[in-house]
Predict the structure.
Amino acid sequence: MTVEKKNVERPSAAFHAADCPTWEIPDPDPALILASFDDEAVAAYALRIRPVYERFKRIIGQVSGLLILAQTAPAQADRDQPMVKSAREQLAEAAEKRRDSRAPLAARRHADAMARIEAQLEAVLTTLDRRVDLVTPESTDLEQAMRRLFTAHGLLLAVSDDRADMTPVDFSHACCSCGVSENDPGTTTLGSCAPTT
Amino acid sequence: MANYSIHVLEYAAVPEYHVSGVIYGYHNQGYRKLPYAYALIRSKDHVALVDVGYNHKDYGKHLADKFGVRNWHSPHDVLSEVGLTPEDVDTVFVTHAHFDHFGSVEDFPNATFYIQERELAKWIWAMSLPDRMRWMMVAVDPGDILRGVDLARQGRLVTVDGDMQDVIPGVDLHAAHDSHTFGSMWVTVRNDGTTPSQDTWVLAGDLIYVYENIEGDGGAVGVDKVYTPTGLATGSQTNLVLATEEIMKQVDYDKRRVIPVHEERLKDDFPSRNTSADLRISEICVADGAESQVT
């Protein structure tokens, strides 16, 4: 079974069918099949992998921010080097958790995508460890680092699923977090000021 | 002499937003409409925006389903109501990096974006912290930061360290560190081009959501009005109050000269109209020789 693209505004599935073409490319293709969260093994995997997802998401942001500062602000070794070191340590920790996540068959493609995100981030961080040109707009090093980050981010969007609390942005305390849900107008969301009933 | 026309352009809204989210301490006071909007600053030489809205492509449906954000329209649709296209925009001031202010950067191919260096540097730091400190990176989309890399490579992202005068003639940036966010800023338009100006407007970003942030009820402390900061401060409410005082000084304490884009009651103070898509356009001022966009 496939879902028509036109009916889906953004990918919302965490676990897609083994033959889903999404996994072969980093494009967040919405033609997806959901694995059921009724499957206990899938739900348990989701719990184990969520912190990894969260960390990968943040490393994408950290490295992107470093690349911006490299191009727009004076270099500051005391600012930049600890950030790179920290990102590398976090990636190593997340990689270990990912390897221990024990994906069931239904989540195999999800796990494969997570591994691919990790590989892309590992490659970018290796680049940052070397003395390469990340400043000149025409730099092939910069272009490659960006391509890897966009690939990682595309995969991140593809594996996002709000049912498993894997969302690209944490809206829980954001400017919109107190709105009444369109789908359930009788309730508010779980923002900082939601009723504590 | 007015060099710039200024308009507030609504692009979406949360119809029922918890009041305590926008005014610190206003608990159990119900809901009100919270418009999402950007501000347009336009002269014969420049088209500038203050913020650019959120990335509807990536999570618009999620925002609608989970948080009740409604009636989103693209920058193309919104700007067409005032006779512009996104391609006409040459300057964007990003008051802070929250998803609803820094999201739609790809829609403005000819614009140069300005953001505080501290805003980026501190978000990077926040993203490096353990999960238990995740609150500090709330509402920031790593995808927005990633798209910022591409802007920087194209030479269209400028990181600003503190205040900056005459970014375009008569338009200044002012930093408000550790307030709503780590590196928020507000935009001041000296519309007569002079310093000091007799015709100053402040586009406040999220430093001031609504009028109560400037004129809150001071009964509890025995005064008529007090600054009552917004509900969300990654920095501190103290710094929000201090920034509000600086803003008010700039406009000689004339509340009407401070423009909070999330304030629905702008329509009561300024000529406004609703488009066929039910999006409000508020006309803050009109440049000499320019036409009204609301009458």
Chain B touches chain A through 63 residues (CB under 8 Å). The domain at 5-285 of chain B is CATH 3.60.15.10 (Metallo-beta-lactamase; Chain A). Residues 271 and 283 of chain B are 5 Å apart (CA to CA).
